[in-house]
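Slide 14.
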Amino acid sequence: MADQPRPVMTPGRWRKIRPRLARLRAYFRHHPDKAAGELSVRVRSLGGMRTEVKAGHHRLVLDESPGVGGTGRGMNPMEVLLGALGACQQVMIVTHAALLGVELTSVELVVTGQLDKRGYLGIEGALPGFTRMVVSGRVTARGATPERLAQLEEVASRPCPVADTLMRGLGEHPQHGAQKIDPSPKHPPTFGLGWSEKESGGKEERRKGERRENTLRMEHRVRFVLEGHTG
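Slide 15: predicted structure.
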């Protein structure tokens, strides 16, 4: 018989994690100057398209498919980006489940991205990056009240750090100039349950013949359900 999947967040585990997270939140609220940090990785070529990425003592090998000159012995960078978005969203769900005392029995997400392969090859008229990313999946919980699950759903529908970074951008785009970012609460990032037709950045109407701006549409289709209930 195959092993049964272990619960994602049991009462015992969240009782241990919750105090740590609560202390960390309280500390940074009172010491915002201590919250600034920096992350870095080291990247080196392993020959051909293969690339080694190191973060501390962790190591990841990336590659490209044989069709573009790789060996297919690792995920390509864009697949790693999709994985980073999904993993970050999953961590955010689990973190807030611990803070709310919700026992999660499963978190399963699928992240897809749409792109134009002409951009990678430098063909004019196409951007190399994703123009649409979709996070979909299902989160199940046990023993929580519908109200508490709704709280988790509301918090977890906010952008995780990776989604926030992707949607805000990092300043100047090499092809399209500086991107204006309004950090005020009146213009929050477009991310949440139930939205699918909004874009972050760019304009919907463009003059005929005008090159498409660097816009990214992100969609969130994760369902939160209690075991024994349909949803």
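Speaker note: The domain at 11-29+76-226 is CATH 3.30.300.20 (GMP Synthetase; Chain A, domain 3).
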